[in-house]
Amino acid sequence: MTTLRNDLLLRTLRGEQTERTPVWMMRQAGRYLPDYMKLKEKYSFFERCQKPELAAEITIQPVEQVGVDAAIIFSDILVVPQAMGMEVQMVEGKGPLLPDPIKHIRDLDKLRIPDVHETLGYVFDALSLTKKTLDGRVPLIGFAGAPWTLLCYMVQGKGSKTFDEAKAFCYTQPETAHKLLQMITDTTIAYLKGQAAAGADVVQIFDSWGGLLGPEDFEVLSLQYIRQIVAALKDEVLTIIFAKGAWSSLDSMAATGAHGLGIDWCIRPGMARQLAGSDVTLQGNFDPAKLLSPIPVLKKEVRTMLDAFKGGRHIANLGHGILPNVPVDHARAFVETVKEYK
Ligand code: CP3
């Protein structure tokens, strides 16, 4: 095993002292990078995910071109519904489309809890190859969607601002919803264990739509399943929960024992710290749209964010994924400002 030359992210997640704050960006491998766009002309989205050489190349691009302190494997949260038996298309300019969504208990018959090595082995291969190619430069992050966020897509069949059909499904057919959530949870536990075995140093659970639920429903429909995942992985790999908009549950998220909690820009770092307690690393929370500001303004705003997190365990990141129209030198300025900060 090669030793990591930059393990700032891992030490911060373990609560150890570091010489500076580590930095990476959600969705850092993607459309704002010209080299990514070149590969996009030649290969479809899922081809890029399924060919380990392509996935590894895309994963490493932001490490080399933007200077982040971690790589996140190039893949998508929707490969899990695919592995469970659903068709998922990525429609250019529109986003994901699942033409045959789950609407009724009988639709669950079409799904299976798959053997992850058979169905998602290509992700494990991509992780192993990326790990090898990184050669100890930075840690490697694996990920999966939270069961609730995956249910949103599996039931709604496409992206949505409200996921009204997914919510109606949960509130009118709760037993079916919980059966589905448990199937996704069981698959995700095996999947993330496989990612850790293949070389992921950290895994992040993306609950992009956690904020659509009130605190009680977040517990019932989302957090109780995330808790199972974190409990199953805790001794194998470092874990981060990012439940966008669900900051009112930061206390119960901290109680899961996850090493890190992602927060978006709608909560003050001080308040997040108060809710989460001092025993967990906070990750975030720069408004991704602010990367479009002129560079001197951007740098000042990044320092303001770092000041606000000062004194507690912190990983600098955006509060959600980077936008495709961000100039690469602005992304670089974000990363450099964190690295220069004293
Ligand atoms: O972070 C990274 O750089 C790793 C790669 C990554 C992708 N998707 C690649 C991708 C990660 C971590 C994801 C997670 C993901 N996928 C989430 C959770 C994070 C979030 O942003 O909330 C969600 C909700 C999805 C589902 C998904 N995939 C959507 C809604 C879309 C279309 C909208 C969009 O952002 O383009 C995708 C497509 C997708 N996944 C792209 C990339 C780079 C863009 C499509 C393309 O490049 O062809």
Please outline the helices and strands.
Layout: H1 8-13, H2 34-42, H3 45-50, H4 52-65, E1 71-72, H5 79-83, E2 89-91, E3 95-97, H6 116-119, H7 121-134, E4 140-145, H8 147-156, H9 164-172, H10 174-198, E5 202-207, H11 215-233, E6 238-243, H12 250-254, E7 260-262, H13 269-276, E8 281-286, H14 295-309, E9 314-318, H15 328-340
Parallel strand pairs: 1-4, 4-5, 5-6, 6-7, 7-8, 8-9
Antiparallel strand pairs: 2-3
Helix pairs in contact: 4-7, 7-10, 8-9, 8-10, 9-10, 10-11, 14-15
The chain binds coproporphyrinogen III.
Question: Can you describe this structure in just a few lines?
Answer:
The protein is an alpha/beta fold and 342 residues long.
Which properties best describe this structure?
single chain; 342 residues; alpha/beta; two-stranded antiparallel ribbon
